[in-house]
Design a protein that fits this description.
Blueprint lengths: L3 E10 L2 E10 L7 H12 L4 H20 L11 H15 L4 H20 L16 H13 L8 H4 L3 H9 L6 H17 L3 H4 L7 H13 L10 E7 L8 E7 H17 L18 H16 L2 H9 L6 H18 L5 H7 L4 H15 L2 H7 L14
Antiparallel strand pairs: 1-2, 3-4
Helix pairs in contact: 1-2, 7-12, 8-11, 8-14, 12-13, 14-15, 14-16, 16-17
C-alpha cells in the first residue's frame, strides 16, 4: 500500500538557500503538489523550519489515514463527517493525542485547507467544522481547558442520574421490534451498571457471544473475589476513549447477566452471528448507536411522559447523556465499596483510570451524595477543607 512521508528539500530564494519540506508517495515517488506548495508558501513567509516541518507531519498523517480508507479516493474527497471521524477516531482514539495538542493539529489542518481553497487548488471551500464526534472527548477537552481547577471537574452533581430516572429512560426506548428493544435495553444497562462507553458497547471485540459465555463460566469458579456480595460475571474488554485500546475488567451484575443469556437465544435465531450487540442482520453497529438510543429515549420522554417527569429530564437535558451513565456507574460502585469496606482501588480498575486522582473525584462526590463528610474531605483531590463548600450542587 502507498504511504506518505515527509522529505526535506532545499528551497532557493535569490542568493539564499533554505530548508523546506515536501510530502511524497513512497510507492510512486510522486510529490503531493498542493501540500508541498503550501509548505513552500510557509517557508517563503518567514515561518520557522520547525513550524513548517510540524505542519508537514500533521498533513502527512491525514493523507495516510485517507490512503488507508477504501471509501475515500483522495483528500480532495473528504467530507465534514470524514474529518470529524479522523479527529476523534485517529488523532484522539488511536494516537491518543492530548486535547491541548489536538487543538494545535486542528489549527494546522484548518490553515492548510483554507490556503488550498484561497489559492485555487480546490473549487469550493471544504467547509470542515472540525467538530469532535466523541462525547467523552468533548468532556475531556472541557475538563483540561478550564474545569480542572473546579471542585467538581466532571460536573458529577449535574450528571448523576438517580435509579428511578434511569428506569424511566428504559421504559421510553425508541426501538421498534422485540429484538431491537431488548438489545437497546441491554446497551443502556451496560452503561449504567457496568460503566461501558458508547464505543465499547458496540465493539465486536468486546461483545462476542463466545467470549461472554466463556467469561460467565470462568466467573462462576471465582465468585466473590472482590469482596462485594454481587453475583454475575466479569470479563475483559478493550477500551475506547481516553487511553484507547487498553484492556480492563468489567463486572456484569446477575440480573443483567440473566437478561443477556435470555437474549443470546434470540440473537442466534435472528442474526445468526456471534455478536451480542448487532443489527437484526448480525452486522456491527456504528459507534454512535448507544448515544442515539439514549437520545431517542429522551425525545420519547419529552413527547409522552407525565409533565413532572418531562420537567426533570428537561432540566437535565444537556448533562444527562449516554456517557453520564458511566459516571453513574463509578459513583454507585464507590458506594458499594464504602458499604462493604472494599478498597477504592476496585473502582479505579473497573473504570480503567490510570491515575487514582481521577478516581478520587468519584469517591468524594459519592461521599457528599451520601452525607459522609469526613470521607468527602479525605478524598477531595488536591483541595483544602475550606474550599469544599459547594461540591455536587
Amino acid at each position: 500500500m502507498a504511504h506518505f512521508e515527509v522529505q526535506i528539500i532545499k528551497l532557493v530564494q535569490g542568493v539564499k538557500t533554505r530548508k523546506s519540506c515536501a510530502v511524497y508517495n513512497t510507492e510512486t515517488h510522486v510529490i503531493e503538489v498542493a501540500v508541498t506548495a503550501y509548505l513552500t508558501y510557509m517557508i517563503k513567509t518567514g515561518l520557522k523550519w520547525k513550524t513548517v516541518y510540524n505542519a508537514a507531519s500533521t498533513i502527512k498523517t491525514l493523507l495516510n489515514a485517507v490512503e488507508a480508507d477504501p471509501k475515500i479516493d483522495s483528500w480532495y474527497d473528504l467530507t465534514d463527517e470524514n474529518m470529524s471521524a479522523y479527529i476523534s477516531g485517529i488523532l484522539y482514539g488511536q494516537m491518543m493525542i492530548k486535547p491541548s495538542t489536538l487543538d494545535v493539529y486542528i489549527t494546522r489542518l484548518k490553515s492548510f485547507f483554507d490556503w488550498v481553497y484561497e489559492n485555487g487548488w480546490v473549487e469550493e471551500s471544504m467547509g470542515f467544522s472540525y467538530k469532535i464526534t466523541s462525547e467523552e472527548l468533548r468532556e475531556l477537552m472541557a475538563f483540561n481547558s478550564g474545569k480542572k481547577n473546579s471542585l467538581d471537574p466532571y460536573s458529577l452533581g449535574g450528571r448523576y442520574i438517580p435509579s428511578e430516572d434511569f428506569e424511566t429512560l428504559l421504559s421510553y426506548k425508541g426501538a421498534q421490534g422485540t429484538f431491537e428493544r431488548e438489545r437497546d435495553d441491554i446497551i443502556l444497562k451496560l452503561g449504567y451498571y457496568s460503566g461501558f462507553r458508547a464505543g465499547e458497547v458496540v465493539d465486536p471485540l468486546n461483545m462476542s457471544i463466545v467470549k461472554i459465555k466463556t467469561s460467565i463460566a470462568r466467573s462462576k469458579k471465582k465468585a466473590g473475589v472482590s469482596g462485594i456480595p454481587m453475583e454475575g460475571f466479569e470479563m475483559t474488554i478493550i477500551g475506547k476513549g481516553q487511553g484507547a485500546g487498553k484492556p480492563r475488567t468489567i463486572s456484569i451484575p446477575q440480573d443483567l447477566q440473566n437478561q443477556i443469556e435470555r437474549f443470546i437465544s434470540i440473537t442466534h435465531k435472528i442474526s445468526g452471528g456471534d455478536l451480542l450487540i448487532c443489527s437484526r442482520e448480525g452486522k456491527v453497529l456504528r459507534d454512535g448507536h448507544a448515544t442515539d438510543v439514549f437520545t431517542d429515549a429522551k425525545k420519547n420522554i419529552a413527547k409522552h411522559a407525565d409533565i413532572e417527569i418531562v420537567k426533570i429530564w428537561q432540566a437535565n437535558d444537556e448533562n444527562w447523556t449516554y456517557h453520564a451513565l458511566r459516571h453513574c456507574f463509578a459513583t454507585n460502585l464507590c458506594e458499594l465499596c464504602r458499604l462493604y469496606n472494599v478498597s477504592y482501588e476496585h473502582v479505579r480498575e473497573r473504570m480503567g483510570h490510570e491515575d487514582f486522582e481521577t478516581t478520587k473525584i468519584y469517591i468524594a462526590f459519592n461521599a457528599k451524595l451520601q452525607g459522609v463528610m469526613d470521607e468527602f474531605y479525605e478524598y477531595l483531590p488536591n483541595r483544602k477543607r475550606k474550599e469544599a463548600v459547594n461540591v455536587g450542587g
